[in-house]
């Protein structure tokens, strides 16, 4: 990924590729076909 983005330092790449677990979970829940399931999902603390 670092080479693809043309970054000299992996630290720079990490800034652009960091995804929090909450953000990933929200994106997954919003786009997954099972989203039509009306049951609320418990969030981890």
Describe this structure in words.
The structure is a single chain. The chain has helices spanning 2-5, 10-17, 21-31. With 45 residues, the protein is mainly alpha-helical. It has a domain at 2-29. The chain is elongated, with a radius of gyration of 16 Å. 0% of the residues are buried. The model has no long low-confidence stretch (mean pLDDT 79).
Summarize the model shown.
The model has no long low-confidence stretch (mean pLDDT 79). Helix content is 51%, strand content 0%.
- Order of helices and strands, N to C? HHH
Question: Structural class per helix/strand content?
Answer: mainly alpha
Question: How far from one another are the termini?
Answer: 31 Å
How large is the radius of gyration?
16 Å
What portion of residues belong to β-strands?
A: under 5%
């Amino acid at each position: 990924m670092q080479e693809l983005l043309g970054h000299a330092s992996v630290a720079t790449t990490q800034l652009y590729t960091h995804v929090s677990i909450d953000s990933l979970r929200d994106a997954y829940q919003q786009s997954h076909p099972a989203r039509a399931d009306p049951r609320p999902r418990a969030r981890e603390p």
